[in-house]
Amino acid sequence: MPGPTIDLTIYDDEAALLSGLRRHDPDACTCLVKRYAPLVYARALRLTGDHDEAEGVLQTTFIKACEALASFDGVSSLGTWIYRIATNEGLMLLRKRKPQVALDEVAETLQPDELPQQRQAWAPDPLRAALNGELQAALEQAIAALPEPLRVVVLLRDIEQLSTEETAERLGLTAGAVKVRLHRARLKLREILSGYLASPTEADDE
Fold it and tell me: Is residue 109 a contact partner of residue 62, using CB atoms and an 8 Å limit?
């Protein structure tokens, strides 16, 4: 027998939703999951690259969000707070995996000026280069194809806009290692997306 229909429009803004959550209204919890689950899952999948692990991060994120709701101070938006929990859960899961020693060693020893340079300019934030749906879809696929250590740094620095120092602290790396990994990741993304990012003049010259 189907359950009762819940009118989610009663929480038409974040303030109303937060008020309902603090009253422990079960409808508010349903609305919270419905509103943020797709984006939380997408973020978890970007980090882990695995659908089953992303599902686990999704469930844990909402459990911990509900448990920690009393500590939410409202400085950031509710969505930003939940995505931060999801990111932390994803990173904790990645730390449990077998470390990719070879890539870590390269990242710690190579300097940015030792890597091949590209003649195309690259925006500080790759997502800002996504000028249309096709390019954005290609960018999402390119990020997903990066090796895990490079993918995670791109997500934290370029997608979540964390500083180098914040990223290094989250990942347990030096700031120099973060810079090298980010440089390698951007070069790889630029290589994959060269057909989209090349100017008309450059495309004609090739």
Answer: no
